[in-house]
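This section describes the prediction task in plain terms. A model, or a person checking by hand, is given the sequence of a single protein chain and must write out its three-dimensional structure as a string of tokens. No templates, partner chains or ligands are provided. The sample shown here is typical of the held-out split.
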Amino acid sequence: MRLVLWFVVLTGLVLVTWLIWGDDWDSQFTLAGSVQWLERAGPWAWAAGIFLLIVDLALPVPSTIVISALGYCYGVFLGGCIASVGLMASGLLGYGVGLCFGENVARKWLGDRDFENGRHIFTSRGAWIVALSKALPILPEVIACTAGLLRMPFRRFVLSLGCGSLPMGFLFAAIGRIGRDAPGWAFGLSLLIPALLWWLASRFRLFRS
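The expected answer:
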């Protein structure tokens, strides 16, 4: 029960940032606006894009639009690589935030039973959760922080994070390159490809702790 409450509270905090700043940020982060913002950064546009994807952990940055802008500016391959780095960095930061709370603190918040149940879930099925969450709004931040809090094995977390970040980075970079808004098929592929990557990785036993 406490674990569910943790998800609700953390999700609520993310939603609050959208309620406070969402309209202002949405008006600035159109595809055209994001391209202009990156172009103003000059040779450091790649770093600016990564920065925006990282601060999406705490602020309502529409990451798919930022990734599309990176694709528009740098092309599918380089833009996808930059976006993937930003998405990975954001996930690792979230994991680190959760990890900063000691296990004793986590057990006190969640209770021993919920902590152990949650750790079992993130150890046995967390890779699916982390990989697929990258295609959804709000959840990536919540999942990454929770994975750290529950001590999901780091190697498993990183590999599953990569399975979710790479498809998102390259798919939306490709969309940005051709100058289109994100169509429904991109969302479907952003779910299907991480699942396929995780399945292949698990077949090769890459996710052993």
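For orientation: Residues 184 and 190 are 10 Å apart (CA to CA).
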